[in-house]
Amino acid sequence: MLPYCEPYKIKMIEPLYRSSREDREKWICEAHYNMFNLKSDQVFIDFLTDSGTGAMSDRQWAALMSGDESYAGSRSFTELYETVRELTGFEYLLPTHQGRAAENVLFSALVKEGQLVPGNAHFDTTKGHIEFRKATAVDCTIDEAYDTTQYHPFKGNVNIGKLEELLKKSADKVSFILLTATCNTAGGQPISMDNMKQVRKLADQYGKLVIMDAARFAENAYFIKTREEGFNDKPIKAIVREMFSLFDGATMSAKKDGIVNIGGFIALNSKEIYQAASVFNIMFEGYLTYGGMAGRDLAALAVGLRESTEFDYLESRISQVAYLGEKLKSFGVPVQEPFGGHAIFIDALRFLPNVPREEFPAQTLVAELYKAGGLRAVEIGALMADRDPITRVNRYPALELVRLAIPRRTYTNNHMEYAAAVAGEVMEISKKICHGYRITHEAPIMRHFTIEMEPIA
Length: 457
Ligand code: F0G
What we know:
Elements: H1 21-30, E1 45-46, H2 58-65, H3 75-88, E2 92-96, H4 99-110, E3 116-119, H5 124-132, E4 136-139, H6 160-170, E5 177-180, H7 193-206, E6 210-213, H8 217-227, H9 236-244, E7 249-253, E8 264-268, H10 271-284, H11 295-308, H12 311-330, E9 343-347, H13 348-351, H14 361-373, E10 375-376, E11 378-380, H15 382-385, E12 401-405, H16 413-428, E13 437-441, E14 452-455
Parallel strand pairs: 1-10, 3-4, 5-6, 6-7
Antiparallel strand pairs: 2-8, 7-8, 9-12, 11-12, 13-14
Helix pairs in contact: 1-14, 2-11, 3-11, 4-5, 4-10, 6-7, 8-9, 12-16, 14-16
This protein binds ligand F0G.
């Protein structure tokens, strides 16, 4: 069989700047060891996020030029509406400026104080929007997701037993069930179609809505096609349609599988919920046919959604992520397996076994990768897990991960080789690293974005 190959060529490039270790040590200290405080030209390869950082196609750029900036009834809205309806089957669409805005609007309509929102490891902004409303996000992910050494093709799956128990005990408190596809927090891991069907069945028994956090829905469909029995012959778009048919609606961060730099939406079946959410959309985002996006961005998103649901694109995308994973493994770096759809997750507890958990081993590794080679990664561990909103005690999640998120269509495999070699160098000295960082400043919610830290000598 021939190897995979990118189904595109490069038309425009953007320079990257090399720096010395000395420069980087100074910059990261000035940034209070928070990677969000670094300037982008202080970074050589930026794995901070795959969100809004991808490269648009020439067709998307062309769509930008033909965007319709009418306040109401924009032609670009209609293009997006028709695309979303065709891909998802949902009748109602509310554009928002990004994913968390979609959460804000939809949860304003659906989530009440004291309620529960069970699902598979909610993303941090999602959890933030639930907790902000004094409700609770209940993680029902399967246990296998929390063992980085164990293979499971669908580590994003919900533990049906756990969910059923929760519904049996407290169905009256459950606002809706939220499935994140792929599950970012569990390592970019997919949910199987079979698991989605089981969740749907349970939800129907208890009369509950099921909403998809659809940020990486296309990558999830690729994994269903390549890993789940009975889907190999089906086109991605058919799998996508089947996935969405099991849901009542979705929130979308279009900065991921929409391959645009900014944008999001809510898509729904229910006119009633659409009408309730519309009020909040107008208040927080903008009128119903633009919702915080420029007409040109709506147009580029319509094209991006069609491109991200092409098999050839997804194959090259996910194979590049796996390429980085394999290279890291060849240097002995402990990584979450199977590899995620948008990122490789390094197990920091295995990488830095001598750094105590209260000194934030994943953040310590993030700093080392930057100092060694200018890589910018992100901590997905105790810093991001934040404090318990009631007791204010630090939460220590089952996994302490470093995420290397790969922007779409942006870097080459040479960049992946370089990054793996940097991690390999840090691996060689990993046992000698015994101390991490202490917090010197933190915000009351979603602290990791603005946190300030100092090394524990
Ligand atoms: N849901 C998931 C699964 C996400 O990964 C994100 C964002 C959001 C919702 C919120 O969307 O950023 O458009 O407001 N994830 C980014 C990341 C930030 O780096 O993983 P947003």
